[in-house]
């Protein structure tokens, strides 16, 4: 079958990948759409650093991830699909049923995250394996391209849930990439009445407004904290220095939720947070219930993800799409449609 794989830091097209075979409890699906995630871009450029960091951690399933960077790597974890066939002794939805799933494959050898792997095929392929118990049917009539954005929307919902933000509190979102957009959408559906978004890109600021931000700010014109006194701050940038700058500028008693994934060492002055009693919450991924809730919000029209989709490519265009996503004014989310 056809697939796009990471090889020597670049995405390349293949037409000779063997079709996956479903085992007990697994389902073979035909991929309908898969979003390109910023974490995929980062892994392509800095895979050695990502693996070194995850393997140095203790107490995390991801620390046991083993990937050979010298071999082809499968990726793609924001997907929608249609059921093709089930593995032995496996009950599942009928063939043709549109589904999505949290990106995890249950296998005889254990839990295999569908993120980056030499063996577990992801959404940048014609077909992939999913776990029957984890399948979530996509409601009738929902565009499968929109359903593919369930995963990033769930990341935003998880960040908002962890923040404990209340409707009357001002929320400031720093960074309007896909995760920042997902946070804005989740804040709006949660009833927050004052959502402020900050980004250097005018295109991203305009998009933040369409996703639900009440006000947008350009950091090039001055720190957002000069005009906004937020109770909750969402950091969705993921570069060194941001957390420390927030601690220095944030109001007394505010809450900081760190959703941006920074893979580099960073320096923080604890005194800033101590002196102002700032609560800091780091967040990652989501709970299964948040994944399902995000799909329902998209299906019911409470979150319109259509504006986020700024491009669509086939499997032979994934490499070029990775390069195009480096320009924040040109793209937000590119979908791969095999």
TrEMBL record:
Gene3D superfamilies: Medium-chain alcohol dehydrogenases, catalytic domain, NAD(P)-binding Rossmann-like Domain. Keywords: Oxidoreductase. Residues 178-299 form the Alcohol dehydrogenase-like C-terminal domain. One of its GO terms (molecular function) is oxidoreductase activity. Residues 23-139 form the Alcohol dehydrogenase-like N-terminal domain. The keyword Nucleotide-binding does not apply. It comes from the Bacteria. InterPro entries: ADH-like_C, ADH-like_N, GroES-like_sf, NAD(P)-bd_dom_sf. It holds the Pfam family ADH_zinc_N. This is Alcohol dehydrogenase.
């Amino acid at each position: 079958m056809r697939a796009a794989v990471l090889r020597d830091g670049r995405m390349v097209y293949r037409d000779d990948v063997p079709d996956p075979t479903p085992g007990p409890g697994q389902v073979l699906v035909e991929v309908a759409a898969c979003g390109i995630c910023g974490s995929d871009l980062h892994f392509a450029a800095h895979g050695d650093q990502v693996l070194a960091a995850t393997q140095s951690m203790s107490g995390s399933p991801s620390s046991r991830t083993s990937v050979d960077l010298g071999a082809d790597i499968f990726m793609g974890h924001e997907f929608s699909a249609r059921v093709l066939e089930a593995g032995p002794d496996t009950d599942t939805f009928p063939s043709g049923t549109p589904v999505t799933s949290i990106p995890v494959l249950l296998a005889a050898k254990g839990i295999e995250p569908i993120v980056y792997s030499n063996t577990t095929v992801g959404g940048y392929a014609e077909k992939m394996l999913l776990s029957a118990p984890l399948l979530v049917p996509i409601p009738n009539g929902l565009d499968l391209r929109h359903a593919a954005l369930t995963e990033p929307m769930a990341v935003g919902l998880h960040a908002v849930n962890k923040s404990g933000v209340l409707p009357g509190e001002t929320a400031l979102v720093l960074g309007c990439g896909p995760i920042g957009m997902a946070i804005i959408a989740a804040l709006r559906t949660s009833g927050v009445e004052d959502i402020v978004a900050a980004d250097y890109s005018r295109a991203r600021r305009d998009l933040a407004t369409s996703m639900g931000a009440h006000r947008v700010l350009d950091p090039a014109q001055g720190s957002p904290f000069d005009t906004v006194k937020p109770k909750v701050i969402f950091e969705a940038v993921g570069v060194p220095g941001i957390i420390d700058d927030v601690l220095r500028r944030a109001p007394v008693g505010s809450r900081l939720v760190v959703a941006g994934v920074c893979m580099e060492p960073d320096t923080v002055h604890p005194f800033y947070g101590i002196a102002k009693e700032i609560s800091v919450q780091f967040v990652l991924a989501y709970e299964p219930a948040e994944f399902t809730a995000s799909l329902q919000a998209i299906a019911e029209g409470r979150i319109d993800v259509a504006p986020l989709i700024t491009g669509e490519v086939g499997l032979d265009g994934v490499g070029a799409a990775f390069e195009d996503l480096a320009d924040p004014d040109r793209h937000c989310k590119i979908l791969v449609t095999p």
